[in-house]
Amino acid sequence: MGKRRALRSGPGSWLAMGLVLLATLAMVLPFLYMLATALTGEWEAFRYPPALIPARAHFGNFSAALTALPFDRFFLNSAILATCVGRRSCCWSRASS
């Protein structure tokens, strides 16, 4: 078996860990803000300064968004298209080999 390398704890690893943490925050914070905004009331999202945690969660926003347009039809269209493209890709890959 090979030798195991010890973890380094020098300034370079602290810098790398800090950059990873910064990148993680840059990816997670917009998602959390989007979720908080989705749970706010209709006009509470436009308030200044914005509230990071809504005073009252409005879970009805999700059902209203899904019923505003025919998302079931959109999903069916996407499934049909993905199936056709996948089958065509499989058929063409078999024909070329």
Describe this structure in words.
There is one protein chain. This protein is mainly alpha-helical. It has 2 domains: about 10-60, no CATH class; about 70-95. It is about 65% helix and about 0% strand. The protein contains 3 helices and no strands. The protein has helices spanning about 10-40, 60-70, 70-95. The longest helix has 28 residues, at about 10-40. The protein is flat.
Describe the structure concisely for a colleague:
The chain has three helices and no strands. By secondary structure, it is mainly alpha-helical.
Tally the helices: what do you get? 3
Uncertain segments = none
Amino- and carboxy-terminal Cα gap:
41 Å
Give the tally of structural domains.
Answer: 2
Q: Based on helices, strands and strand pairing, what is the structural class?
A: mainly alpha
Largest sheet data: none
Instruction: Calculate Rg over CA atoms.
Output: 24 Å
Overall 3D shape: flat
Secondary-structure element order, as H and E?
Answer: HHH
Level of helix content?
55-70%
Average residue pLDDT? 84
How many individual β-strands? Answer: 0
Share of residues in strands: under 5%
Question: Which terms summarize this structure?
Answer:
97 residues, 3 helices, 65% helix
Task: Describe the secondary structure blueprint for this structure.
Layout (H helix, E strand, L loop, with lengths): L10 H28 L21 H9 L2 H26 L1
